[in-house]
Automatic annotation (TrEMBL):
Organismal lineage: Bacteria, Bacillati, Actinomycetota, Actinomycetes, Kitasatosporales
Alphabetically ordered keywords of this record: Kinase, Transferase
Designated name of the protein: Glucokinase
Keyword Signal appears in the UniProt entry: no
Source organism: Streptomyces chartreusis NRRL 3882
Family to which the UniProt record says this protein belongs: Belongs to the ROK (NagC/XylR) family.
């Protein structure tokens, strides 16, 4: 019997996706449910179990050897619990135990969603071939993850690389996390749009005040829109340069909605990086847009499950 598949779960505030994934990262079976994010914890868990039920009901399930979960955070990998900000019914929720029970006692690996996307970009995307990389998701929030020495570095709790909450403005605005001047408070999509509006940018006739609309305005040369992206780029560059100086990454991959802004973001980002990443060992640092699409969370969760399986085999477990 082939035992070459892993199950993957991608759990976010709006949807719960599941898949059976092979050793090349191909998705063979899919299942999905909306996240009942406003319901109590057990109701949310039932949606996860429905997704898992579709996977365990597949004729391919017998080939699955591990389960990988990428979840909205914070997660606690060592405790096997999750407390996603957008799912209030789950606080220190014992997700790993519940998933293991629903998956026939297969080993379960839990990581944060930013770490999962990093695993996907390293396996199949823009960070492929890079042994030391920072991958970021810049959208409603700012998350990330690290690859160090060729391996995903999830950290003890599974949150390592959460660059969105590094402070880059010591006396900056209060961040919802409780700190001040976080990268996310400056560079997330809603903050790019907020700053543009505060400084006099006005949306077009469609009334769209998203960061994508600000990006479109910046592309036509609107100076306030350009300035808001430049400020976001500066915050990202400061966070990336700090990370590179600490752990010697050679590439930073940027995904998420804001990462799709193209040159409006990447041109000022490269300029700001040259101002902040100044030491000889970080000057070669490059930035690149993410390559993985909407399946990044699933593919990354699968990568984490495969890595766990490989580690277990190496340890003779
Ligand atoms: Zn913060």
């Amino acid at each position: 019997m082939h035992t070459d598949l892993v199950a993957a779960l991608d759990i976010g505030g709006t949807k719960i996706a599941g898949a059976l994934v092979d050793g090349q990262g191909r998705i063979l079976v899919r299942a999905q449910r909306p996240t009942p994010a406003r319901e109590d914890g057990d109701t949310v868990m039932r949606a996860v179990e429905q997704v898992l039920g579709e996977l365990t009901g597949s004729p391919l399930w017998g080939r699955a050897t591990a389960v990988g979960i990428g979840s909205a955070g914070p997660v606690d990998r060592s405790a096997g619990t999750v407390s996603p900000v957008n799912v209030p019914g789950w606080r220190d929720y014992p997700l790993v135990g519940r998933v293991r029970a629903a998956a026939g006692d297969l080993p379960v690996e839990l990581i944060g969603d930013g770490v999962a996307i990093t695993a996907a970009e390293h396996w199949q995307g823009a960070a492929r071939g890079h042994d030391n990389a920072l991958c970021m998701v810049v959208s409603t929030g700012v998350g990330g993850g690290l690859v160090l020495g060729g391996r995903l570095h999830a950290g003890p709790t599974g949150n390592a690389g959460h660059i969105g909450h590094i402070s880059v403005d010591l006396d900056g605005d209060l961040c919802p996390c409780g700190s001040h001047g976080c990268v996310e408070r400056i560079a997330s999509g809603p903050n790019i749009a907020r700053r543009a509006l505060e400084n006099g940018w006005r949306p077009g006739p469609d009334g769209d005040t998203s960061a994508a609309a600000v990006a479109a305005a910046a592309r036509t040369g609107d100076p306030v829109a350009v300035a808001s992206f430049e400020r976001a780029a500066q915050a990202l560059a400061a966070g990336i340069a700090a990370t590179a100086t600490l752990v010697e990454i050679d590439i930073a991959v940027i995904g998420g909605g804001v990462g799709k802004a193209g040159d409006v973001l990447f041109a000022p980002l490269r300029k700001a990086l040259s101002a902040y990443a100044t030491l000889s060992f970080v000057r070669h640092l490059t930035v690149a847009p993410a390559q993985m699409g909407t399946d990044a969370g699933l593919v990354g969760a699968a990568a984490a499950a495969l890595a766990r399986r490989t580690d277990a085999a190496a340890a003779g477990v």
